[in-house]
Amino acid sequence: MKDLKFFSSLESLDSESKYLVHKAKEAAQRAYAPYSKFHVGAALLFEDGTFVEGSNQENASYPLCMCAERVALYTAAATQPGKIIKKIAVVAHKKNHKELSGSTSCGACRQVMLEFEERQASPIEVVMYDQKKWVLCSSISVLLPLSFDSGNLKD
User: Whole-model pTM?
Assistant: First the structure.
C-alpha cells in the first residue's frame, strides 16, 4: 500500500521524521499518567519548520483525560492559528521510559486529526510506532476511511 510505509528501525526513516520522533519522545517525558503509566508524546511539524508538542494528560475521572495528539493539535490551533501542519509523530512508552510501546492513535484522535487536515486542505503525514515497526502514513484520511465529516452535517 503506497499510502502506508513500514520501517523496521527508526534509523530507516528520513531525517525530518527522526527529528520529529525525537521531539515526540521529549513531549512524552512531560505526560501526566499516574493511572495508566502509559506516557504518550506527540509533535507537530509546520510547513515553516516550527514545532508544537503535546503529551497525554490523565485524570482520576477517566473520561476527562486528553490524548497527546489532541493536546498538540489544540495547542497549535490556539497558539499558531493558520499555520499548515505538515507532519505529526506519536510515540509512547510505559513508566520505565526504556523502550517504546505501540502508539497508534485512537479513533477519537484520528477523527480530530482528520478535521484539522480537511480544514487546512492539505494532507498531514503521520509517523507512529506499532508493535516493533515504524509506520509512515501519507495522510490522516488513510487512517480513517469512511469517516464522519462536515459533509455528513449538510442538508
Answer: 0.92
